[in-house]
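Holo prediction — beta-L-fucopyranose.
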Amino acid sequence: MKKIFFALSVFILHSCTSNAQEKFGPTPTKEQLAWHDKEYYFFMHFGPNTFTDLEWGHGSENPNVFNPTALDCNQWARIAKAAGAKGIVITAKHHDGFSLWPSKYSKHTVRESNWMNGKGDVIKMLSEACKKEGIEMGVYISPWDRNHPQYGTPEYNDIYINTMKELLTGYGKFFELWWDGANGEGPNGKKQVYDFTRFKDSALRYQPQIMIFSDIGPHVRWVGNENGIINSTNWNLLDTAGFKRGEGAPPNDTLNTGNYNGKHWIGAEADVSIRKGWFYHPEEDNTVKSGATLFNIYLKSVGHGGNLILNVPPNRKGLIDPLDSAALMDFKKIRDKAFANNLFRNAKLLYTDNSVEVHLDKPVAFNSIQLKEKISLGQKVVKFEISGGNDLKQFQPITKGTTIGHKRIIQFPTQNIQYIRIHFTEYKAKPILTDISGYLISN
Ligand code: FUL
């Protein structure tokens, strides 16, 4: 480890002397950098839909349908922590408008239900549980509200801001605010004209560090699918001019890859549910993804330079279902095993202007390479080629790739070789890597 660090710092130093330590293009803020480092966290869809078997509640449900019999947010946070997830983003309010906290701006909340005699507050319980476990928390506050009588009028924008204020000032710090793109009709049959500029400014006034997710950011973007997959070419850059939040976004394939010359740093977050639906439905118990499937998704989300938000919906008891937690623990085991043994840890790294060579003491079997770019200075690598062999004069091609960013995990057929070359065949400015590691992953 020491050696590779030494070698890496030499690589960086070398780059420094040739002026390459400069920023190039848009760069992430320090909050965005911290967000990139989280990599993987839970999403939780919970509310009346959990009990009615709907995905989009109508907003007219009797609040008493919300009746978890053994709700335990400590169990959620404990499992999230044990699963290696860095936090939990919960649907504080989904499209049905039901608030998981007793909001004074709504008459459709936990307070109106018989659960805990109307004295319950899921957001409070979860924020305390996350603090206890040392993980972070985020909130999904659906702008679309199928219950609120004012929805579809300009007053609703003020109500939405007050609702956010209540949440963002009453429960401690959140790392993420999630704005879904759905915008349908409210109880009056009217659609809302959202004032997202005011929403954004207000949210950042209440919590300046919060990362706002929407199709087009401002801080984090959607990846254009709900399968948890980011394109292997993934630019953390996006052009948002001409698009309005809630009223259209760039095409899904653009969201999936970002824009090569995009004006803003807006990293990709891949959302996917561990089950078929976003909410728990008992008949979907047989759709729980296996640890191996989740690992595959991880390789195509985190391994493609973005973050993975994995939905784990609590069941009707108000607990993470044993089926889900078993799959999550398997997933963790597979990840830990895959990355336990960095086979390049004692390697010598030799660099030229546009390549790095990894010299091992002897031939080693590996089938995966992990690369990280120093994204605080921008995303620079466009294309690279990996080759190698046992004779320094005769390298054979192994694989090619595009973009690196926060993290890139590249897989290929097992090689049993001593020397490896990563050749940056196209780059915007001199690449600076902070990690080059090799693994033999069996999955
Ligand atoms: C979408 C919503 O309409 C779904 O119900 C779900 O919350 C998903 C994560 O985002 O926009």
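READOUT: The chain has ten helices and 16 strands.
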